[in-house]
Design a protein that fits this description.
homodimer; 620 residues; alpha/beta; Amino acid/polyamine transporter I; Rossmann fold; 2 domains; 5-stranded parallel beta sheet; 23 helices; 5 strands; 6% strand
Chain lengths: 620, 620
């Protein structure tokens, strides 16, 4: 028994050896490692943020593309607000959980629930969309893989699930290289692109007066699309506890670094995309076009394509850190099933990881690997959680009322919450028919479900609570029913067990197919003369079923014996080899499955293990 | 409770209402109905019997086709022997079971086992091959169905399974029309074909002297292929009990009718195939070619094609009557798992039907709906069972020794057994590499498995047997272990139950995550002061798992308490609605699953059902 856990089995190979509680601290990560676990979701937005803006604007002609510059600038301003605010939030709420905990503690449970539902949806969408986007990039490089898009995507989700079941630090080590390579390559491309002499045409020639004739709604749509570039920046504040001590300081530093990287990469990409007047097209991404123009169709182009794929797949990993953490916090508050609280051998919230893997796989299968339709759903949920976090921050600082500098934070929080609320409204209005309605429907549904869960736990707790501690256990009278098919050693053992329980009455229950068999069994029983306390009851079976007449008899007995408890004691034959199980009828299992739902009937299974000594007998 | 069975639910719609034992007689069938249940396997052989002979002979040129006439004549002589012998067998063994029962009762269990294994294989092959052949015919009419061959075949098997789970008479009514239509159409075609004036050329012109230069081995191969036309004729003698009283008389009459129909249809087809000098080809069957020549490419051609498909599919139904019957007889003799003895609500041996449906579906899937490869396997098993039946008949009549006419039967049995043994040897030798080796391998494997089953049942019976009836149940000392997570009403109820059992000792077992929690629970427990007989044991969990430390403790306790029994009493919370089950951890189920395999530990599950009165509480 003692060394069982040392065995190297499939479980250990897939998920690693079990980790003890006191090892927990050493699993935690530093700033740069934490960035590679929590930042890929936000950073990978650079792969499509500028492109989403240009796609919307290009509908109004090439001249309209100029607007990408002010739109990107506004988004970067938004980013600065968010980073500064989130650094405050990390300090105010060091246990993570992000918008859910913040909203709950400051604005009340309803705001928390709303943020929690929005974030859980967002985590799931991130996995589905990022993984399929990564696979789509792979497939455009190897077209022969096209028929296996769904299978490959699900395989990647399964891979991420297993990696995360192994624990957080392993993930960090695995994903650090592509994350930092992506940052370095984009920044290098921006730097070269900004100062390269060989820019194709002067900017002035490209900015024509036609640019001004663009409808305001289109600008809003473009802004709303571009705002998806900031999704994922909340991940660090949600996951503060994964950092080493001092986790708040480390998380704040990581948040600052993320802001600097994301802002310069996003704005830089938008500027050089305009400088090289890139027009979005369906085959090649904006990033790939830029790499092609600036460095030519060489190693940089191919490496960037590959790293982009990698970081899109890795972005999904952010959710595998965030979803289980949030689900466990919400489970502790009894809004989610208790199972999300269970930590496995490797110290991770295994059920959250598994549920996330399953739901995002189902989404991929349901949308047949084409999750473009899900992208518009992103921004709504994320910015809703931003709004709740910002206004919570403002309210909290206002309530504390000590620090003379607090008005800066309060003003920032209020302004930030208005700004992000405006993004939510803009996204819902401009993209309602494109899929935003799904989120508008899903969030209230999930909130409703969580309230039902909460209500259940509360009513169970109310009902089980033992307020009067003078109530102590008292014995009741027992009636024991023992199903008896024939008189043999197993019957002897089971009836001995029944006698040990000191019951008021023991009924040996026999089911007979015909009156003749009934008479024969009666005679054998009388001959045995087992014990005066054991009464024989024989019921006839009209339908050849053994279970049904037994249950009917037991129900009848329970009705008669209202003041006590009926216990059904069922023998179960344990065979030596597992194949031999198909040779027996397992009445204990079948009967227990039926009886367990009856309030006043307890079921006891008494195992009888065969010795299986080789019997010296020839087949007859 | 009383009217539950009257509810019209999905189960009733699919399988019909439950049938009581005393209704059994009215489910049985008459001669003509019985023929339509048991004969399609044999009759459908007409669809390929002649063709199989011609395919082998045509390898030696058109001149060799003449040999189909003497070969068919020999096969019909064989048929006559078999029919006469099987009518004797039906009389000698009126409970059905065919070659298995006959071999077992007369030649001993080994011969019976051999026949039983051969027949079970044959029943399964019949289902797979007939269904896919029928679907192949359908698909050649509607080529757009080609990609769904496997799915359609499995669907037909599922349909046959459900029809047979409804009971035998329903099948008879459903299948009578195509069976008799097939008989009438083939006999009509033979009659018109024999006497039609417009035969293309005189026979003499067609039979050239080149015919004589055919190798004897080819003749044997052609004979062996043609002998597949007689597979299935044993079905009636195997299924005698499905006939109404006097079932022996009715079965003998059905056997005679089958012989007459099959003989005239097979021989007639061979003769007119020769008269119209049909050469087999891959696209159109011999029967379709004949219909085309004799009646033109009109309604007869299409109707015959359709009816041929239908009877091939229905042929599979023979096995759904025979397999469960044989399996139940062999289960009664303890060669097969006991579950094949269970008769369901509709009086059929449901497990036999379900197992046959599953195995034949798996064969279809494994061979991707192309079961041509399985056809050579047929004859070996069937003729092996014929041999055993014939020699049994001879031995039985010889042992009885009263009837002066018995020598006729003995001679017939001996000659028949030699003849059929010759067919087995011919088939194995001439078709070994074509697939006969599979049967040569499978039969001993199945026989070996059946012997293992028998050995198990015998050793269990030996071990359980209570020879000394002075041994009576005696109470033993009990130690009860009750897992306790917290002190609440469920704990109260479970401990009350434990006290009712009058044990020597009660251990309330608590698993604590940390030393602080352990101390806190100790204090609460002391404060409660439940009962002096209940001792608290607290174990610490290093790995967050609750089950593992409990099991370790219980194992330890079992070791200490060698002279008595350890009973683990586990509470199980019963919720009102099934979705609420995902909100609880179901420790009872998890713990029972582990503990049930320990010899000396009994497990009691005590249900605690919540009232679920609406609780007047707001979410906090």
């Amino acid at each position: 028994m003692k060394h069982t856990r040392r065995h190297v089995n499939l479980r250990t190979i897939l998920f690693g050896r079990p980790i003890k509680d006191r090892e927990a601290e050493s699993r935690k990560v530093g700033v740069w490692e934490g960035l590679s676990v929590l930042a890929p979701d936000a950073l990978s937005s650079v792969a499509y943020g500028t492109e989403e803006i240009l796609i919307v604007l290009s509908a109004a002609g090439v001249g309209a593309l100029w607007y990408s510059l002010p739109i990107s600038a506004v988004i970067v301003l938004l980013l600065i607000f968010l980073v500064v605010s989130y650094r405050q939030i990390i300090r105010a709420y060091p246990t993570g959980g992000g918008a859910y905990v913040i909203g709950r503690d400051t604005l009340g449970p309803s705001a928390g629930l709303l943020a929690g539902a929005a974030l859980l949806i967002d985590y799931t969408l991130t996995v589905s969309v990022s993984v399929t986007a990564g696979i789509a990039a792979l497939v455009s490089a190897f077209p022969s893989l096209l028929p296996y898009t769904v299978e490959l995507s699900v395989l990647v989700v399964a891979f991420l699930t297993i990696v995360n079941l192994r624990g957080v630090r392993e993930s960090a080590q695995l994903f650090a290289a592509p994350t930092y390579l992506f940052i370095v390559m984009i920044l290098a491309m921006v730097a070269v692109g900004l100062f390269h002499r060989a820019a194709p045409t002067p900017l002035a020639a490209y900015v024509t007066p036609t640019a001004v004739s663009v409808a305001p709604l289109l600008i809003l749509r473009a802004f709303s699309s571009g705002s998806s570039a900031l999704t994922g920046i909340e991940a660090i504040s949600n996951g503060v506890p994964v950092f080493k001590e001092d986790s708040v300081q480390r998380a704040r530093r990581a948040m600052l670094l993320l802001g600097l990287f994301l802002g310069s990469m996003f704005l830089g990409t938008s500027i050089i995309a305009f400088r090289y007047h890139i027009v979005p097209n369906a085959e090649v991404t904006v990033l790939q076009q830029l790499a092609d123009r600036i460095f030519g169709h060489g190693w940089f182009f191919y490496l960037l394509s590959f790293v982009t794929m990698a970081i899109l797949s890795i972005a999904a990993n952010t959710s595998f850190a965030g979803f289980p953490q949030l689900a466990s916090i919400m489970a502790r508050d009894e809004w989610m099933p208790r199972m999300f609280l269970a930590r496995g051998d490797r110290l991770v919230y295994q059920n959250g990881i598994i549920v996330l893997g399953i739901i995002s796989s189902l989404l991929i299968i349901a949308f047949r690997g084409n999750t473009d339709a899900l992208i518009p759903l992103y921004a709504v949920g994320v910015y809703m959680s931003f709004t709740i976090a910002m206004s919570s921050l403002a309210k909290k600082r206002w309530q504390e009322g000590n620090d003379p500098h607090r008005w800066v934070t309060i003003g920032m929080g209020l302004f930030g919450s208005l700004l992000t609320a405006a993004v939510v409204i803009t996204s819902v209005v401009t993209k309602f028919t494109e899929g935003a309605w799904i989120v508008v429907l899903a969030i209230p549904t999930i909130v409703w479900g969580m309230r039902a869960v909460h209500q259940h736990y509360r009513s169970v707790a109310d009902e089980l609570r033992l307020e009067d501690l003078t109530l102590v256990p008292k014995p009741k009278a027992l009636v024991v029913v023992v199903p008896v098919a024939s008189i043999n050693k197993m019957t002897l053992a089971t009836l001995s067990y029944a006698l040990s329980m000191n019951p008021e009455e023991i009924v040996a229950l026999h089911v007979a197919g015909t009156p003749e068999r009934e008479a024969r069994f009666h005679a054998r029983w009388k001959n045995w003369n087992a014990d005066p306390r054991i009464k024989l009851a024989v019921v006839e079976s009209q339908y050849r079923s053994v279970i049904r007449p037994m249950v009917r008899y037991i129900d009848h007995l329970t009705g008669l014996f209202a003041e006590g408890r009926v216990v059904v004691v069922i023998p179960e034959l344990l065979v030596e080899k597992s194949w031999q199980n198909i040779l027996h009828n397992h009445m204990a299992v079948a009967l227990e499955a039926v009886l367990i739902f009856r309030r006043r009937i307890a079921v006891t299974v008494v195992p009888y293990r065969l010795q299986q000594k080789p019997v010296n007998s020839k087949p007859s």
